[in-house]
Amino acid sequence: MSTVVDELGARLRTYEGRAAAVAGRGRDPVNEPMIRHWCEAMGDTDPAYAGPDAVAPPTMLQAWTMGGLSGHTGRTEAYDELFDLLDAAGCTSVVATDCEQEYLRPLRPGDEVTFDAVIESVSDRKTTKLGTGYFVTTRMDVRVGLDLVGTHRFRILKYAPARQKEKAKEKEEANREGKREGKGARARRPRPVVNRDNAGFWEGVEQHQLLIQRCTNCETLRHPWLPGCNACGGLDWDTVEASGEGTVYSYVVMHHPPFPAFDPPYAVGLIELAEGVRIVSNVVGVPYDKVRIGLPVRLEFRRYDEPQGSGDEAGPLVLPVFRVQEGREDEVG
Ligand code: ZN
Fold first, then answer.
1. pLDDT tens by residue, 214-273
2. What is the 249 CA–ligand 1 centroid distance (Å)?
3. What pTM was estimated for this model as a whole?
């Protein structure tokens, strides 16, 4: 630990205890229709949330405090100042890290909530993988009348991105290399996150096989790969190789934001395989504005990021993509 006094940290901590948001009142009293919609969306059929003695699901706590799309955030000057101080110190990035709720008594239809939020704590300076900065915790207290019914703590990390400088340097170097070779250097595609649960899928892709997981208990197919079966909860599985036939079930055209390895606009498709499961992938073989729902497509494997020279040690990336069949561009099933 550094013994250097963290002046910024000391200054930030003077904001502890100050209001983060102006006091507010719930837009609607706790009510049955919102509870019913919530339960439907969550698939929660607990009988405690219906009927004449219904209570609201505790996890709805924050819902009763939300301003809706037209609502304002109610941030205080103190909270804005705290952010300005962090921005000025180079901590310009922000990521929400976690939230924590505490339920002191159930809410019931008819309860009218009020709430306020306070800057509860600012951490010491921390260095994380993302960069160096400060965790800021705000706490919202939710009340009915004078009773505290629940609290909602929300923690963010406001930080100076670690690798920005390094990345800029790399990019500059890559560009110089590119110029020397007479072509524009290209950013590499993001690599898949391979873990124990999906390693088999990526091993299949390496071998130019698109493997679909199959529950050995109930035979339900699933994609993307998961540790268990959504239909029966079974943990045992094997795989079937996709035939490669499919159709565009849905798609989006990406215009923004730009990612270094991609040239917008491009189409991202949700492909329904002949076997019935769907996979997100690129649609190739037609311009982005010719992709349509129902287009028949066929699987192929493409290699990206071929090594550019002796200094480039990372191997190419093999990905499944879906090609619109020649002569079938206008065929919409
Ligand atoms: Zn199953």
1. 999 999 999 999 999 999 999 999 999 999 999 999 999 998 888 888 888 999 999 999
2. 24
3. 0.54
Q: What is the distance between the alpha carbons of residues 186 and 192, in angstroms, rounded to a whole number?
A: 18
Rounded distance from Cα 253 to ligand 1 centre (Å): 34
Contacts of 37 (CB under 8 A, 6+ apart): none
How much distance in Å is there from the Cα of 188 to the middle of ligand 1? 38
What pLDDT score does 263 carry? 85
Measure the CA–CA gap between 203 and 206, rounded to whole angstroms: 5
On whether residue 173 sits in a domain, the answer given is: no
Burial of 236 (0-12, 13-18, 19+ CB in 10 A): exposed
Q: What is the pLDDT of residue 180?
A: 44
- Cα(213) to centroid of ligand 1, in Å? 10
Same domain, 152 and 210: no
How many angstroms separate the alpha carbon of residue 243 from the centre of ligand 1? 21
Residues 29-83 have pLDDT tens digits of 999 999 999 999 988 899 999 999 999 999 999 999 998 877 766 889 999 999 9
| Distance in Å, CA 221 to ligand 1 centroid | 8
Last residue of a domain, one of 207, 241, 275: 241
Distance from Cα 233 to the centre of ligand 1, integer Å: 6
Placement of tokens 């994609």 in the chain: 223
Pair 260, 237 in one domain: no
Residues with C-beta atoms within 5 A of ion ligand 1: 215, 217-218, 220, 229, 231-232, 234
Q: Report the separation in Å between the CA atom of 248 and the middle of ligand 1, taken as the mean of its atom positions.
A: 26
Expressed in angstroms and rounded, the spacing between residue 235 Cα and the centre of ligand 1 is 8
Q: Is residue 171 part of a domain?
A: no
Q: Residue 216 is part of which domain span?
A: 193-241
In a domain, 170, yes or no: no
Q: How many domains does the chain have?
A: 3
Between strands 245-254 and 296-304, the pairing is antiparallel
Does 22 share its domain with 152? yes
pLDDT tens digits along 150-159: 999 999 999 9
DSSP 176: H
Closest CA to 210 of 124, 139, 281: 281
